[in-house]
Amino acid sequence: MQGKIALEEHFSTEETIGDSQRYAPPTHWPELRERLLDIQNRRVREMDENGVELMLLSLNSPAVQAVPDATKAVDLARRANDHLAEEIVKRPDRFKGFAALPMQDPEAAAAELRRAVVDLGFVGALVNGFSELDADGTVSHYDTAEYRPFWAEVERLDVPFSLHPRNPLPPDARVYGDHEWLIGPAWAFGHETAVHALRLIGSGLFDAHPGLRIVLGHLGENLPYGLWRLDNHNAWHGQRAPGYQARRDVTDYFRKNFLITTSGNFHTETLVAAIMAVGAERILFSTDWPFENVDHAAGWFDSAKISDEDRRRIGRDNAVREFRLAA
Predict the structure, then answer these.
(1) Which of 190, 26, 214, 3 is CA-nearest to residue 93?
(2) Could you tell me which residues are beta bridge partners of residue 235?
(3) Which end of the chain is more exposed for a tag (fewer CB within 10 A), N or C?
(4) Whole-number pLDDT of residue 239
């Protein structure tokens, strides 16, 4: 399929590049480093060769979210967004931007999102999971009361917010023990992000701000396939489970307020299950470049056994609608 739009596609600055080194063995790190820092050369060739018309770019993980000093986080986010804006101006027909945000300071995060959308022309934000608040491992998730003004601004600006994975901090990763293979994309990424998304739902956030749209990668971080069990248990005794503050079932919010992408999960049976769970109109094509290959993503998607109508929706039309792009 020609004209695909991909929206979980990462870049790095020299300042944040080291955060991605853990995701590649030493023999592969030079290749990944080169991919992350490049925007205008190989990336565009990969797009041209695989029918990708547009990429929505976002800063690598965890980057800003791993800076405990809020003042430094604000500065890093601003400089990363300015750098990305300078690159997009060179090829506005091929790239759009997601804002990096200093969520350590909700007021500053709202101001930076506003600047990125209004002044820089970005089409949304991507935040790499929870934010670190101090050197002792205190972190913030975004379901708490102090983030409500931030979410109000996201809703007012009417742009999607992508919740991207990061690894748990060491004290919270003890469950994995010596099984380091579970850290990162194999499992920990999805677990961390799914729990964070459920916290947002259970907090009643979408009752207060029904216009919010949250993007989850990797075909939904396993959430589309657990919706029935979540709701069944939550109403098992004819009443909501303790701590669940939302008015409706998890499934209702997930189908209305969430979008999921195909990034890094190139499996047709899982895609079909996602279509059945949330509908093709809630799914968007992505590759997860440079951590995954564009040709792997595009080759799989172009030949996946789904209808051509759904392929067009997922590959392009849904992104045009959700990000207000030119058709």
Answers:
(1) 3
(2) none
(3) C
(4) 79
DSSP state of 313: I
Question: In angstroms, how far is the first alpha carbon of the chain from the final one?
Answer: 15
Q: Are 106 and 140 in contact (CB under 8 A)?
A: no
**152 burial level (CB within 10 Å; 0-12, 13-18, 19+):** middle
Q: From CA 181, how far away is CA 19, in angstroms rounded?
A: 18
Strand partners, 311: none
Residues 264-286 have pLDDT tens digits of 999 999 999 999 999 999 999 99
Q: What distance in Å separates the CA atoms of residue 99 and residue 290, rounded to the nearest whole number?
A: 18
- Crossing angle for the helix pair 250-257 and 188-202, to the nearest 10 degrees: 100
Q: What is the pLDDT of residues 199-243, one digit of tens each?
A: 999 999 999 999 999 999 999 999 999 999 999 999 877 778 889
Q: Average pLDDT for residues 98-121, to the nearest whole number?
A: 98
CA distance 159 to 282: 15
The reported pLDDT for the residue numbered 240 is: 84
pLDDT at 327: 65
150: Cβ contacts below 8 Å, ≥ 6 apart: 103, 106, 107, 109, 110, 113, 142
Q: In terms of Cα–Cα distance, which of 60, 32, 43, 162 is closest to 94?
A: 43
CA-CA distance, 49 to 298, in Å (whole number)?
10
Q: Which of 288, 295, 302, 310 is catalytic?
A: 288
Q: How far is Cα 28 from Cα 229, in angstroms, rounded to an integer?
A: 40
Helix (H, G, I), strand (E, B) or coil at 282: helix
CB 323 within 8 A of CB 56: yes
The question of whether 48 is a catalytic residue gets the answer no
Looking at the domain covering 4-322, what would its CATH class be?
Answer: alpha beta
Structure tokens at 179: 């099984």
Q: Enter the DSSP assignment of 314.
A: I
